[in-house]
Amino acid sequence: MAEPLKRRIGLGLLTAYGVGVMVGAGIYVLVGAVAADAGVWAPLSFVLAGVIAAPTALSYAEFSSRLPEAAGEAVYVGKGLSSEAMALLVGLAVVAAGTISAGAVLRGGAGYLTAATGFDGTYAILVMGGLLTAVAIAGVLESLALAALFTAIELIGLVLVVWAGASAEVSPDWSAMVFPPGLPLMTGIGLGGVLAFFAFIGFEDIVNMAEEVRDPEQILPKAILISLVLTSIIYALVCWAAVRAVPLSDLTQSQSPLALVWQVARGGDANFLSAIAVFAALNGILAQIVMASRVLFGLGRRNAALGVFHQASARFGTPVLATLLIGTLVVLAALFVPLARLAELTSTVLLSVFVLVNLALIRMKRLHPGAGFRVPMMVPVVGLLLSALALSVAIGGML
After folding, report:
1. 65 forms bridges with which residues in the sheet?
2. Which of 386, 364, 390 lies closest to 375, judged by CA?
3. How far is Cα 102 from Cα 282, in angstroms, rounded to an integer?
4. Residue 40 — φ and ψ, nearest 5°?
5. Residue 7: how many CB atoms within 10 A of its CB?
6. b/e for 185-195, b at 16 or more Cβ within 10 A?
7. 351: Cβ contacts below 8 Å, ≥ 6 apart
8. Spatial CA neighbour of 22 closest among 205, 258, 149
9. How confident is the prediction for the chain on average, in pLDDT?
10. pLDDT at 3
11. What are phi and psi of 267, to 5 degrees?
């Protein structure tokens, strides 16, 4: 009989994990792109993005109380749509998206480290990838505690950006409430909201920790909802500070918009934000390695061909073989895979999963209404429609 995972995670650590996954390195570049659509109203786009994500997050919350298992999305779709083939496809898609995404973040984090220290990029990828994989093997409590530390460092940086933007001289664009020409106000805010939605992808990773949470039926839904609310507030505040302090023409052209906020408000360089971006990258990589290995562990229970991965170490209580495989693939992706359109591809895969999860919950609620945590039928219906809309926009952007 396979060794079970150890239930060691409480609400605080799981919520910190969820916030850390969502508040990733993307916030350091996404603000300018959203401002290009919504102007100084960009903070509303981030609030709208949180509203768009909320129905699907609530669908995940109900499913997490019904089926608290690793490989959450695969289990939800498999049982909700009565299709093991679809469950396997969804599970492998989530593993692939998480692995390649972590590879992209690892390459970016190594680039920041190389720029700051001159350390060889290839060695940086190997060392960072190897150390994070070792942490993921050592234990889930250790992994999430380190991720929480990285999250705290990253949040300190974002708090400093908000403080700088709030104390800066108000930009002329903010005073005039400038909006980009050529689009109606609500259309621009809406387009910015769809773009900002991609920054919220990550709440779904929480459900894949289900078999290591002490009271999953109670803790998982709370962690999903609390982390989504906190992330929405953080993003809106950071975006508000940026559009308040920096003229739109500069903000939308910058590759480092948050560093620009600091330079405009406080003067001097903002190298410390580059250092914080490395911690953000480490956080994202570790979270994805932990998540993808749990999905692979869960798939091993459901599929004989992957059964070798449904094993947890008696010493560490973690799926060692699955973690080693994911960690190795992450390093290889960072070293060799062309990743130019990775963000669009990853988002498209996960939005497709969101569509299927909402559809599965609609069918599950019709067949089996009872659940420990329940949402109205309208929630997965709205989640399905919003996810499908965001998916069509993402596909259109790739074509």
Report:
1. none
2. 364
3. 9
4. -75, -5
5. 15
6. eeebbbbbbbb
7. 387, 390, 391, 394
8. 205
9. 82
10. 60
11. 80, 165
**C-alpha–C-alpha distance, residues 24 and 283, integer Å:** 8
Encoded amino acid at 178, one letter: V
Q: Are the C-beta atoms of residues 373 and 219 closer than 8 Å to each other?
A: no
Q: Quote the pLDDT of residue 25.
A: 58
What tens digit of pLDDT does each residue of 180-221 get? 655 556 777 877 777 777 777 778 778 777 778 888 888 888
CB within 8 Å of 96: residues ≥ 6 apart: 349
- What sections of 246-270 are H helices per DSSP? 248-253, 257-266
CA torsion sign, 28 to 30 to 31 to 36? Answer: positive
Residues, the chain: 399
Domain positions in the chain: 11-398
Q: Which two tokens stand for residue 380?
A: 């997965």
User: What are the helix and strand counts (H, E) for the chain?
Assistant: 16, 0
User: What is the three-class DSSP state of 119?
Assistant: coil
Q: Which residues are CB-contacts of 140 (< 8 A; sequence separation ≥ 6)?
A: 5, 6, 8, 9, 209, 212, 290, 317, 318
Q: Residues of the chain whose pLDDT is less than 50?
A: 1
Return the H-helix or E-strand segment holding 322: helix 320-336
DSSP string for 35-83: HHHHGGGHHHHHHHHHHHHHHHHHHHHHHHHH---SSHHHHHHHHHTT-
Contact 39, 338 (CB under 8 A): no
From the number of C-beta atoms within 10 Å of its C-beta (0-12, 13-18, 19+), residue 94 rates as buried
Closest by CA to 272, choosing from 190, 171, 153, 165, is: 153
Residue located via tokens 């609609």: 362
> Which token pair is 264?
């405009």
Whole-prediction pTM value?
A: 0.79
Phi, psi for residue 139 in degrees, rounded to 5: 160, 150
Cα distance from N-terminal residue to C-terminal residue, the chain: 48
Alpha helix stretches (DSSP H) within 168-256: 172-176, 185-197, 216-245, 248-253
Domain boundaries 11-398, corresponding CATH code: 1.20.1740.10
For 320-332, the pLDDT digits (tens) are 899 999 999 999 9
